[in-house]
Structure formats: structure tokens, C-alpha cells
Amino acid sequence: MKLATFVALCLIGLASLTEGYKIYKATTVNCRSDPNTSSKVVRTYNTNDNISLTCQTSGENVKGNTLWDKTTNGCYISDYYLHTGSSGYVAKKCSGGSTGGGSTGKIPGPIKNDYPYPGQCDGVDPWNYFKCQCTSFVAWRINSRLGVKFHNHYKGPNWGNANTWDNAARSTGVPINSNPVPGCVAQTNSGSAGHVAWVAKVSGNQVTIEEYNWTRHKYSTRTVPKSTFNYIHIKV
Ligand SMILES: *[C@@H]1O[C@H](CO)[C@@H](O)[C@H](O)[C@H]1NC(C)=O
Ligand SMILES: *[C@@H]1O[C@H](CO)[C@@H](O)[C@H](O)[C@H]1NC(C)=O
Ligand SMILES: *[C@@H]1O[C@H](CO)[C@@H](O)[C@H](O)[C@H]1NC(C)=O
Does domain 20-102 fall into CATH 2.30.30.40? Predict the structure, then answer.
């Protein structure tokens, strides 16, 4: 019995060293030419295949997971179906991908105050948030830069104040973790109503955010330690 346990542990160690991963949650998975389900199926993998990765990138959201794994066969499978032991990156980010996701990704756009209601802070915005609040600015950025029709009742629950965005993300299967990428949402429960911001840049252990109402009703940018926030991945 002891020997069997020892052998099993060694095999686990070996598997993680050689970075071969298994399919789970399905018996067959499509491997595609690009990290989205509209692209061409290049080949399929089965449950017992030993799959090695060259890199990972963000792409279409598959059941709440936006990560895609590029295999050594040069095609992409949704990370939802690959048992890597992590919902985050376990291999390097693919470079030059048109879908972004890395710090070279295209989504964030210029760091500037493009909020449509600067200084017009009365009333409610089209996404059902009070204008000039942190939530209103981030709702605007999700709509304008990610092309996602986000609003106060996105996917059902009341997203409400910034300090309930983490709960809303969890209850709707939107990924939330401690790994920022440009174009995701920074969220914290600290302060009376919490705070949310737009992640513009990630560099080492620091994250550069754009935000509203850190100073009352005003736009600002800050560079802070990653650990300041949780990160909600609406699209990336
Ligand atoms: C899985 O693939 C990796 C990389 O090609 C290889 O080094 C390893 O030996 C394989 N593992 C198994 C259990 O086949
Ligand atoms: C799928 O990915 C490719 C390459 O990134 C892109 O050109 C294409 O527009 C994507 N299709 C959809 C529907 O997202
Ligand atoms: C907006 O900022 C002001 C002053 O910084 C603060 O008192 C207020 O609570 C903030 N609003 C929200 C909803 O956090």
C-alpha cells in the first residue's frame, strides 16, 4: 500500500514537470485555428491524450473561462476543458495574438478621460448607474472598449455598488481572480461602497488603473500594487 502511494506521487510529480495535461469535462474537444468557437476545427483531442502547451492567450468566453491554450500541434483549445490545475496562466502568454490578453493586447486603448458625462454628474447613466461614480465609468469602458452590453443587471443579478461586483461576478460565472490583464476590471470591497476601476496596464507587480470618483466625481489614474484589487474578467 505504501509503495503504491509512493509510485502515484512520483507520477504526479513527473506529469507536472513535463507539462502534459489531460482533457476533462468532455470526452472529445475541438482544437481550433484561433481562440474562438467560430474558427476552424483543426483536430480533436480525447480524454486520455497527453497535451502539451506552447502558450496561452485570452479569447472567447467558454462557460465563464476566457483562457485558451495553444497546444504543440499549433491549435487552440478552451482552457475550460484542459485540466491544468489552475484557472490562470500555467504557460507563457502567446505573443502577437490579435485577441490580446497579454500586456501587449489591443483592448485598453488610450489612457485618457473619454467618459461621456464629465462634469454632468446629475442623474443616472444608460447602464443604470449614478453618473460620475466609479461604477458608471467602468460600465462605460466595458461597453465602449470591450463591446459588451454591460449594465447594472448584467446576466441577472443586481451588480449594485462596487463592493457587490465580486459577488455578482461569482454568481454569474464571470471569472474573478488575482491576475490582472489590460481590459479587465479592478474591484475592491474596501471603503464604504467599495471601488472599481479599469485596468489599463500591467507591469511586473504593478497595475495602472483609470477610475472615477477616487477624487469626488473626477477622473484619475493610479499605479498601485496588483494586490490592491480583485480582477473581474468580463471579456479578457
Ligand atoms: C506528455 O508530453 C510531454 C511533452 O511532450 C512528455 O515529455 C511526457 O513524457 C508525456 N507524458 C506522458 C505521461 O506521456
Ligand atoms: C476568431 O479569431 C480570429 C483570430 O483571432 C479573428 O480574426 C476572428 O474575428 C475571431 N472570430 C470571432 C467571431 O470572434
Ligand atoms: C464618491 O466620492 C465621494 C468623495 O470621495 C465619497 O464620499 C462617495 O462615497 C463616493 N461615492 C461612492 C458611491 O463611493
Answer: yes
Distance 38 CA to ligand 2 centre (A): 7
Is domain 134-232 given the CATH code 1.20.1270.360 in the classification?
no
| Alpha helices (H) along 99-208 | 134-146, 165-172
**Bridge partner residues of 20 (DSSP):** 52
Grid coordinates of 145: 472598449
133 lines ligand 3 (CB under 6 A): yes
Q: Is 22 in the pocket of ligand 1 (CB under 6 A)?
A: no
Q: Give the residue from 156, 154, 212, 206 showing the smallest Cα distance to 180.
A: 206
For ligand 1, atom 8, name the residue with the nearest CA: 18
Ligand 2 touching residue 98 (CB < 6 A): yes
Query: Is 90 exceeded by the pLDDT of residue 35?
Result: yes
Q: Is the beta carbon of 54 within 6 A of some atom in ligand 1? A: no
Q: Look over the chain and give the mean of its residue pLDDT values, rounded to a whole number.
A: 87
Mean per-residue pLDDT, 32-61: 93
